[in-house]
Specification:
By secondary structure, the chain is an alpha+beta fold. The chain has helices at 6-28, 37-58, 63-92, 94-97, 99-108, 111-121, 151-176, 184-205, 216-233, 236-239, 244-249, 269-275, 345-398, 408-424, 440-447, 449-466, and strands at 130-139, 142-149, 255-259, 264-267, 306-314, 317-330, 333-343, 429-436, 472-475, 480-488. Helix 1 packs antiparallel against helix 2 and helix 7 packs antiparallel against helix 8 (184-205). The radius of gyration is 55 Å and the shape is elongated. It contains 16 helices and ten strands. The strands form three sheets. It has a five-stranded antiparallel sheet with strand order 4-3-7-6-5.
Length: 496
């Protein structure tokens, strides 16, 4: 006897809710609007809705609330087949081919689901969809609604089975007619469309404890996963229903397509608006010149993309475009080229402005460098003059400017040094000579001060010539001089 525990009953629906919501958010938030995206996303949300209220149903024991919750389940149940039909129709592009028929069918498909929802709401009185309700406890805390099915249930089931089967067959017919070779993921998509149909038949005709577990929501989850990953992973949802012309038309940048002979084969809306192209240019050879496209660069001669700058000037207008042309090949055979134009005017103007700013900055730096060099030269000269002045100032602070001999300060400094040395080494003696010129005043009065100064300079020079290098001569006052004889060993060594 099969016994189902709580995890086995709630886990499938919980996984269904999580998987469907994740896939729906991923799909509905995609920026590119691909065919069938919206109905496929709504289909995922409908499956999650069904599974959510199924979980609520299994945990509710009150009969009235249980009937209300199972009624809400039917919102997702009746919507799923119609949403699958809408997805396949938009995915394959049938609505464009049979526009009038689809305008009628897209509303007619909802008639049976709306009627079913109305009859479900009236089940307590009519019982056309469900009747003979009883609450059964499968395990502690898990309850199921045992019921019998009314005639309208089978009508709706037949309707759902029919449109699901027709949708699967219609997709297979439209798809396999278009592809050259059937691959395994094509079969998986077909299986995904048929799997819920088979799972629901198993549920309806099964008995015993399997009747308490409806695998249809899990089957639709399998369908959602197979469709999502097969159609998106293999890029069917992005590119298969869209022709090359429509793809290039929505490229977003001016695009030109040339055949293997260099003839213009196609241009998109951006190229038409930018250069005023018309259909009469189709088929013209680029090597012979195409009106309004005389600026076309040379085509690539290898598999590498050739990039060329195209500049437009005139009427005080400057435009810069970057032309990228790629060789298209079928196998190893070239079939043409595709040329895309990217507006880089702002970039080139920024680069040109940056070059001008750099040149201006370099000129300013050069001028500033010259100014700094000149300022440094002047500062160096000023520093040299200041140091020279300081040296002269220091020199004249210790020397007599008239005779060039040491002055009184210099004399006292030297005298202090020799006295200090004598105290340390008494054996080293020194001598002092005081010189005073008598009658110097009469020279100034008789011959003038200039003659007196010249006399003092003459005496000073002779005094310096007669002394040793270690001796010191200093002008003490006007006509008084003092000589320090350094390094004497005996007093007798004093010169006469």
């Amino acid at each position: 006897m099969l016994t189902l525990s709580i995890p086995y009953l709630l886990l499938p629906d919980a996984l269904t809710i999580a998987v469907c919501l994740i896939l729906a958010v991923n799909l509905l938030t995609r920026r590119r609007d691909v065919p069938g995206r919206l109905p496929f996303g709504m289909f995922l949300l409908a499956v999650a809705w069904w599974a959510f209220f199924d979980v609520w149903d299994l945990q509710t024991s009150a009969l009235g609330l249980k009937m209300f919750v199972t009624g809400l389940e039917y919102v997702g149940i009746v919507s799923i087949p119609v949403l699958i039909v809408r997805f396949v129709v938009f995915y394959t592009g049938v609505q464009q081919k049979w526009l009038r028929l689809w305008q009628f069918a897209r509303w007619a498909l909802w008639v049976m689901p709306v009627l079913t929802l109305c009859f479900v709401a009236l089940d307590p009185w009519l019982g056309w969809v469900r009747n003979d309700f009883r609450v059964l406890e499968l395990s502690p805390g898990i309850f199921t609604l045992d019921k019998s099915f009314g005639p309208w249930f089978y009508v709706h089931a037949a309707y759902s089975y029919a449109i699901l089967l027709l949708t699967a067959l219609g997709w297979a017919w439209l798809h396999f007619r278009r592809v050259q070779r059937v691959v395994w993921n094509d079969l998986l998509v077909l299986l995904a469309l048929l799997f819920p149909w088979l799972a629901n038949i198993f549920y309806l005709f099964s008995g015993g404890h399997w009747r308490s577990f409806d695998p249809t929501t899990s089957a639709f989850t399998v369908t959602a996963v197979l469709l999502f990953f097969n159609l998106l992973r293999f890029r069917f949802l992005d590119f298969l229903p869209v022709s090359r012309e429509r793809l290039i038309e929505n490229w977003g940048v001016p695009t030109l397509v040339f055949d293997q002979k260099g003839r213009l084969a196609f241009f998109n809306r951006e190229a038409k608006l930018r250069w005023g192209l018309s259909g009469g240019l189709i088929g013209l050879d680029r090597s012979e010149g195409i009106p309004k496209l005389s600026w076309l660069p040379m085509p690539p001669d290898g598999p590498e993309t050739r990039t060329t700058d195209v500049i437009f000037t005139g009427d005080r207008r400057f435009e810069a475009w970057e032309a990228k042309e790629k060789l298209l090949c079928l196998g190893k055979r070239p079939t043409g080229t595709v040329l895309t134009m990217h507006d880089v005017t702002a970039l080139r103007e920024s680069q040109r402005a940056l070059r001008l700013l750099n040149a201006e900055l370099e000129a300013r730096v050069r001028d500033r460098t010259q100014d700094l060099q000149e300022a440094n030269r002047r500062l160096s000269e000023e520093l040299d003059q200041r140091r020279q002045a300081e040296r002269l100032s220091f020199y004249y602070s210790l020397h007599d400017p008239l005779t060039g001999l040491g002055n009184r300060s210099y004399l006292l400094s030297r005298l202090g040094q020799v006295i200090e040395r004598y105290r340390r080494m008494p054996q080293t003696q020194f001598g002092l000579i005081f010189i005073n010129f008598n009658g110097f005043k009469r020279i100034n009065e008789s011959y003038g001060h200039q003659a007196g100064d010249e006399f003092l300079r003459l005496c000073s020079n002779r005094l310096k010539e007669s002394l040793r290098t270690i001796d010191t001569a200093a002008r003490y006052s006007g006509d008084q001089f003092v000589v320090i004889l350094d390094g004497l060993l005996q007093a007798e060594e004093l010169p006469a």
